[in-house]
């Protein structure tokens, strides 16, 4: 929430009243000094909205979704930090997962698995605070009519004039397809000291999965506070279908629909009541090929007595992920 502390020139500057970044307090300096630790993201949200979108999340590489497995993974540093989108990130060296400390070895096979929430832009393997290798993702997937496909589709609501309250009631029905998964991207109220006497004031959103083809949500927006601050709300759906699949929406009683054939080419937008009113943005449908990758890479670069590696991933929508490091120790 306060910014990114990977380095003093990392994305997401620290703008909080507590002050700016200092290189000696960054992740990279800590690793350079020989410390070994896991990394996380966190919203630090005061008005009881954990995971408030865009303010930090933690990913965990756990053996199961149980309390014990999750805590064990955290304690073993099998974690990664996220800015907001729920990017899945697996990172291994010689089969050992992120967060590990492994004995010296001259042969180092790096394996990376990524399942993003938007088109991948680039991924970097960082060794001893220097970029070892960068992978760029530039091509759009080609989908043929009638071919089955899977992809993600973000429904975003908000805009309108600043401080004008807009209530949203949105139903989504998929025709000729299925909803595989749902990723909420809702924000809470940014306030330092919420008052207990009005708890409902801070509950802006509720959503539910109705069945395998439909979802419903209610939320509130108040316009964007500045032209560079996004306060919109939304939900991302992973959809299985074809180019003929249709997304049907009812927004505050207004019907809107779009086919995946159209959305794979680009986004669509609609105003609730004309220019400067609240608006709906149907983002481009992103085929699975654009947000998933599996990579193997062998490191043949110069070695030292203690090398550390980590991975960072950037999507085209400027959402990021950083893995916990793996350290190779006891060598030269």
What does this structure look like?
The strands form four sheets. Strands 1, 2, 5, 7, 8, 21, 22 and 23 form an eight-stranded mixed β-sheet that branches. The longest helix is centred in the N-terminal third of the chain and has 9 residues. This protein has two domains: 157 residues, Immunoglobulin-like (Sandwich); 140 residues. The mean pLDDT is 93. By secondary structure, the protein is mainly β.
Keywords:
Immunoglobulin-like, 332 residues, 8-stranded mixed beta sheet, single chain, 6-stranded antiparallel beta sheet, 6% helix, mainly beta, 2 domains, globular, 23 strands
Question: What would you report as the Rg, rounded to the nearest angstrom?
Answer: 22 Å
Global outline: globular
* Quaternary: single chain
How many DSSP H or I helices? 3
- The count of DSSP E runs of length 2 or more, i.e. the number of strands, is 23
Mean pLDDT: 93
Major β-sheet profile: 8 strands, mixed
* CATH first level of the largest domain: Mainly Beta
H and E order = HEHEEEEEEEEEEEEEEEHEEEEEEE
**Poorly predicted tracts of residues:** none
CATH-derived topology of the largest domain: Immunoglobulin-like
CATH superfamily of the largest domain: Immunoglobulins
| Structural class by helix and strand composition | mainly beta
Share of helical residues: under 10%
Distance between the termini: 40 Å
Strand content: 35-45%
Q: What is the second-level CATH architecture of the largest domain? A: Sandwich
As for the number of domains, it is: 2
């Amino acid at each position: 929430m306060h910014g990114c502390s990977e380095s003093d020139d990392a994305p997401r500057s620290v703008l909080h009243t507590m002050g700016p970044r200092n290189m000696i307090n960054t992740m990279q300096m800590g690793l350079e000094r020989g410390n070994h630790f896991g990394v996380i993201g966190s919203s630090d949200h005061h008005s009881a909205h954990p995971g408030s979108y865009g303010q930090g999340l933690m990913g965990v590489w756990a053996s199961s979704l149980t309390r014990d497995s999750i805590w064990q993974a955290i304690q073993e540093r099998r974690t990664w930090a996220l800015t907001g989108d729920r990017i899945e990130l697996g990172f291994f060296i010689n089969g050992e997962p992120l967060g590990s400390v492994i004995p010296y070895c001259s042969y180092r096979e790096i394996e990376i698995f990524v399942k993003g929430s938007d088109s991948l832009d680039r991924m970097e393997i960082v060794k001893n605070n220097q970029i070892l290798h960068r992978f760029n993702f530039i091509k759009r997937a080609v989908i043929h009519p009638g071919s089955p496909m899977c992809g993600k589709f973000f429904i975003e609501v908000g805009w309108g004039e600043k401080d004008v309250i807009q209530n949203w009631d949105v139903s989504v029905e998929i025709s000729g397809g299925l909803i595989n998964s749902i990723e909420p991207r809702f924000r809470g109220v940014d306030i330092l000291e919420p008052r207990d006497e009005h708890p409902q004031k801070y509950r802006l959103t509720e959503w539910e999965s109705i069945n395998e083809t439909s979802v419903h949500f209610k939320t509130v927006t108040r316009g964007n506070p500045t032209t560079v601050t996004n306060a919109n709300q939304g939900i991302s759906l992973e959809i299985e279908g074809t180019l003929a699949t249709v997304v049907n929406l009812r927004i505050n009683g207004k019907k809107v629909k779009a086919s995946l054939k159209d959305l794979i080419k680009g986004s669509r937008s609609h105003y609730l009541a004309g220019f400067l009113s609240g608006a709906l943005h149907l983002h481009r449908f992103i085929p699975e090929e654009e947000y998933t990758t599996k990579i193997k890479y062998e490191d043949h670069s110069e070695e030292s007595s203690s090398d550390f590696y980590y991975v960072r991933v950037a999507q085209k929508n400027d959402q990021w992920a950083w893995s916990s490091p793996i350290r190779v120790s006891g060598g030269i």
